[in-house]
Specification:
Helix content: 25-40%
Number of strands: 22
Structural class: alpha/beta
Strand order of the largest sheet: 1-2-3-13-4-14-20-16-18
Mean pLDDT: 94
Strand content: 15-25%
Number of helices: 9
């Protein structure tokens, strides 16, 4: 197996074993630990060449390799997110309706609700019990596991449904998983027989009670593995490639840069955050003080901490906001400005600005920084393309870039092109994974 095939194989394995933020963080810790990274909590002092990681609530993580230059001069940062659109179980999720037990859900992020019906689905997550123990749950991935599904109306009876707009004909409250059933018994006065059976099975397998689901975090995702797509195997079809394609390659580039043990001139950082798909909110999202707190911990261990040093470090940093872009779709060409669209297998997609329509909610990168990044990519022989997300009035999207830009650092969006973005199964080109890994590695040493 050559190096390119190995990277693609590792990437698909990362997707298969990282369908939630917690699973991604656990994998990144394992990868980083093998590469010599240590938990910063175990390090009192840091010097050039040292490698550490910091986690937050098991759902966000940052890797740092300390450079020879003072941190006041800034860092080179790769910033990605590890959350993806999905369904979340509600806090009181189980209910029975006419002999069928359902799991009540609330969708997370921007989805087309109709895409989530009649698919084999899996449940991943944790159940936290009052005694302080945490139960890890994964149902639907092993070959002998059951899967779950959201039913839909047969076309014979769907005349009224088909008159609705696509955004309306599957309601959010109807995205409930079928969990089990019981055989109907005539004149049976016992209530919720099916639900009781489901709870009995959960008790036997995981030792959890219904009340424990009140403190659970269960995510419903497509069941199944990442697959090669196309007769030439040039594409990858998988769940969660927005934005785990960029998160994996960012981590892989960071570990590869640090593998030689030689200190970088400029401190390198790989940041993987949560909650981007719902606005980067919360304690593990980029809109919080998460990142500056992490950097403060590093500064405190490399010298004398001061607020000014922290501010200078952040303002003097350069970041590639490692996030995906919409791939040009020939079947829907009218949605794109073709000359400014990213194409599959075109290499890294750089976006000077994101946002919607009149650049609302955008980070707009300085041309001086873009020129420096272009020079870096050309020197490393990396393929890249300059792009934006669709026609101006068609819509748009955002990334974590504008949250990083508030510190005064240079930020440029840089990711892979994705076809069918936010669908349960997304498509990327293998060539783009290889090119972005190469490009991220070159940037860290810039």
């Amino acid at each position: 197996m050559n190096a390119n095939d190995k990277l693609i194989s590792q990437y698909k394995s990362f997707l298969d074993n990282g369908k939630t933020e917690r699973e991604c963080v656990a994998q990144i810790i394992t990868m980083a630990s093998k590469a010599g990274y240590k938990d910063i909590a175990k390090c009192k002092k840091l010097a050039a060449g040292d490698k550490v990681y910091i986690t937050k609530m098991n759902k966000a993580i940052a890797l740092f390799q300390i450079g020879s230059e003072p941190l006041e001069r800034g860092m080179n940062i790769l910033g990605a997110h590890i959350d993806s659109p999905r369904l979340d179980a509600k806090q009181n999720p189980l209910y029975e309706k006419d002999n069928i037990t359902y799991l009540n859900t609330h969708y997370y992020g921007g989805i087309k609700k109709y895409q989530w019906t009649t698919l084999p689905l899996a449940i991943h997550g944790v159940v936290c019990k009052k005694d302080g123990t945490t139960v890890n749950v994964v149902i639907g991935e092993a070959a002998d596991d059951p899967v779950f599904c959201i039913s839909d109306i047969l076309p014979h009876l769907a005349q009224d449904q088909m008159k609705d707009k696509a955004s309306d004909f599957i309601k959010g409250e109807d995205l409930d998983l079928i969990m089990g059933s019981c055989v109907p018994v005539k004149k049976d006065k016992e209530k919720d027989r099916s639900k009781k059976l489901v709870l009995t099975l959960l008790k036997e397998k995981y030792n959890i009670e219904e009340a424990d689901l009140e403190s659970a975090e269960l995510e419903i995702v497509p069941a199944g593995c990442a697959r090669d797509m196309g007769l030439d195997r040039s594409f990858i079809l998988a769940y969660g490639q927005d934005d785990r394609s960029c998160a994996f390659t960012s981590v892989a580039a960071m570990l590869d840069v640090s593998a030689g043990g030689k200190a970088l001139k400029r401190t390198a950082c790989c940041l993987c955050v949560d909650k981007e798909e719902i606005g980067s909110v919360g304690a593990t999202g980029m809109a919080s003080n998460l990142f500056e707190n992490m950097v403060a911990e590093v500064i405190a261990r490399t010298g004398t901490y001061s607020e000014l040093t922290l501010r200078r470090c952040l303002a003097g940093s350069n970041m590639l906001s490692s996030d995906v872009n919409a791939a040009y779709d020939p079947m829907n060409a009218g949605l794109f400005d073709k000359e400014n669209a990213s194409v599959l297998s075109g290499g890294i997609a750089f976006q000077k600005y994101t946002g919607s329509r009149g650049k609302s909610g955008a980070s707009d990168a300085n041309p001086e920084f873009i020129a420096a990044v272009r020079a870096c990519m050309d020197k490393a022989g990396v393929s890249y393309q300059m792009a934006e997300l669709g026609k101006v009035d068609q819509g748009g999207g955002g990334t974590i870039a504008y949250h990083a830009a508030k510190y005064g650092m240079n930020v440029l969006d840089a990711g892979v092109a994705v076809l069918s973005m936010h669908a349960p199964w997304e498509i990327v080109a293998k060539e783009d994974i290889l090119q972005i890994f190469k490009g991220y590695k070159a940037f860290l040493g810039m």
